[in-house]
Amino acid sequence: MLVVNVILRCFHSLGLAVLPILGVWAENVDKFVASELFVPAAASLLSVIVGLFIFSRLTGNLERASLAVSTIFFATVYYGPLASVFVGDAGFGWPITSCWFAALWLVFWAVEAYIFVRKVRNINALTTFANVFVAVLVFFNAWNILSYHALMKPRADLVVLNDDLKHFSRQTANLPDIYYIVLDSYAGNDTLKNLYGFDNTDFTNFLAEQGFFVASASRSNYPLTYFSLASSLNMGYLATGKNHSPDFHGFSPLVDLIADSLVVRELKPLGYQTIAFSSGYMATEMRQFDRFIADSPICRELLCVLSRKTILASCNFGSWNLVRFHADAHRNAIRKVFSELPSVAGKGQPAFVFAHLLTPHAPFVFARDGSPLDLPFFDYSDGMYLRRYMDMSTYRKNYVDQLIYVNSQLKDCISRLLADKSRKKVIIIQADHGPASDVDYSSLERTNILERMSILNAIYLPDSNHDGLKPSLSPVNNFRAVFKKALNNELSLLPDKSYYITFKELYNFRDITDRVDWNN
Q1: Phi first, then psi: what are they for 254, rounded to 5°?
Q2: Measured between alpha carbons, how far is residue 37 from residues 18, 487, 507 in Å?
Q3: What residues contact residue 456 under an 8 Å CB cut-off, 6+ apart?
Q4: What does the alpha-carbon distance between residue 440 and residue 432 come to, in Å, rounded to a whole number?
Q5: How far apart are the C-alpha atoms of 166 and 491, rounded to whole Å?
Q6: What residues are paired with 240 via a beta bridge?
Q7: How many CA atoms lie within 13 Å of 130's alpha carbon, on the beta-carbon side?
Q8: For 376-414, how does the pLDDT look when each residue is reduced to its tens digit (9 = 90+)?
Q9: In this structure, are residues 10 and 59 in contact, taking their beta carbons and an 8 Å threshold?
Q10: Any idea what DSSP says for residue 505?
Q11: At a CB cut-off of 8 Å and minimum separation 6, what does 275 contact?
Q12: What is the CA radius of gyration of the chain?
């Protein structure tokens, strides 16, 4: 009872601590995994508990201490959305940096905290009001989360058309290490030449010289990462089942397919160790793998969304600000993959290594020589969402510059991988989809589908066993080719098709295969 009494006396402070995390979860309930929220929620609660301890020692009254802590927490954590209203929005919820407004804001709320600590007489009534107010906000966010999983998600019926893969043979000798490198938004050579004015044949010729099969006419099967990787990792096209509701709009069934993929389920019984690098992108944070390699326990996508709501978004400490912090973390994560990927597999059991790199996809953080680019804000959004802040000629220039740097890092990474002859290797280097300078996620008619669907796709197989692989090889067939050529399974390749979807009709798969050829 004592613990319950203490919690009731300061419930609003504890509730405010978890409210921003619950809010982000509720806004992205179809994408975020609950386990990803544990660390930021624990850190937020700990900061509030420490504040309660300090202020209760100073005031001698837990209720007054709790009101002061709630006031300070609100002022610092919810600064961003309110500051954007008063001083303007720099982009994607980032408030315009304004030190004078931040200073006035802190002074105002510091005065409020002092009044709560020293001046307010009816402290019990104010505590009750604060508890009820926060409880209502917590309830509504929790209800949105629970109702999605209990009522909305069961209305989804998504299936993978891969019934022909039910009977795999078990090949146990000379198993190769398998590296699956997904370069987000890496365009095919035709798009780069015809739309971006860049000749990328130097890089694709390098891949061919190293023994890769380069699918020169490859097209993505789907225009969005969730769909593309759910398909490629399960070796089949996606379709809605008979129980699927057309009103369902959410990515969670795709997140589930990526996390629990057929590829991994087939490799694990063969003795494969699974290794994944942190991508910073919630859908591909493969924490369930045997090894998950990350610099930070906090997913960067989540950290970005949370931190830009705080007063840190308006702080400049010399050369440090929050945008640079996120950009540096993003650059370091990409460099970490290129640096460490060639050496992560052990010498014992075979390894399946997964690396999803959010590049050359925006944000554009690298110049072509690898030097950092300053950004007005940091966000993973792309395409039509950037047009408010960037003209598309600048987009294409920055995209090409970042791609050139990525090429240089890839060359070194691949050379180091292939120099190690201790075990045979399979290396898949593919894009999930193309870039988005002329893409409208709400309309097929307003989208340059050639830009969005043309991709880099290259496979390195032991002994250059490329028989039967076509220039149109698409991601849905990449692992089919690997299981057939490198693991000696009797599999057939599917016809290479492309489907378009929009955010308005998320599970309406429109066949555009005949429209994604530059020669048409």
Answers
A1: -75, -40
A2: 10, 38, 28
A3: 183, 186, 187, 188, 189, 204, 218, 429, 430, 431
A4: 17
A5: 10
A6: 158
A7: 25
A8: 888 898 988 888 788 889 999 999 999 999 999 999 999
A9: no
A10: T
A11: 289, 290, 291, 293, 344, 345, 351, 352, 353, 354
A12: 25
> Measuring CA to CA, which residue among 6, 135, 138 is closest to residue 65?
6
Angle at 365 between CA 359 and CA 370, to 5 degrees: 90
Bridge partners, residue 293, by sequence: 277
Could you read off the pLDDT of 67-114 as tens digits, one per residue?
999 999 999 988 888 777 777 777 777 777 777 788 888 888 888 888
For the chain, the straight-line distance linking the first and the last C-alpha, in angstroms and rounded, comes to: 75
Q: Write out the E strands in 134-187.
A: 158-161, 177-183
Could you identify the residue written with the tokens 């090894």? Answer: 291
Beta bridge partners of 288: none
Instruction: Measure the CA–CA gap between 283 and 162, rounded to whole angstroms.
Output: 22
Whether 217 contacts 130, CB under 8 Å: no
Task: Name which of 106, 122, 130 is nearest 16 in CA terms.
Answer: 130
DSSP 30: T
Answer yes or no: are the C-beta atoms of 276 and 259 closer than 8 Å: no
* Gap between the Cα atoms of 444 and 438, Å rounded: 11
* Separation of alpha carbons 231 and 238, rounded Å: 6
Distance CA 409, CA 289 (A): 25
Query: Do residues 230 and 507 make contact, with C-beta atoms less than 8 angstroms apart?
Result: no
pTM here is 0.93
Contact of 216 with 204, CB cutoff 8 Å: yes
**The residue type at 426:** V
* 451 in Cβ contact with 190 (< 8 Å): no
The model's pLDDT over 452-508, given as tens digits with 9 standing for 90+, comes to 999 999 999 998 888 889 999 999 999 999 999 888 888 899 999 999 999 989 999
Integer CA distances (angstroms), 138 to 69, 79, 124, 135, in order: 18, 19, 21, 5
Q: Is 109 exposed, middle or buried (CB count within 10 Å of its CB: 0-12, 13-18, 19+)?
A: middle
Please say whether the beta carbons of 76 and 310 come within 8 A.
yes
Is residue 233 within 8 A of residue 262, CB to CB? The reply is yes
Q: What are φ and ψ of residue 309, in 5° steps?
A: -85, -15
- The tokens for 72 are 């300070």
Measured distance CA(261)–CA(229) in Å, rounded: 10
Q: How many residues in total does the chain contain?
A: 520
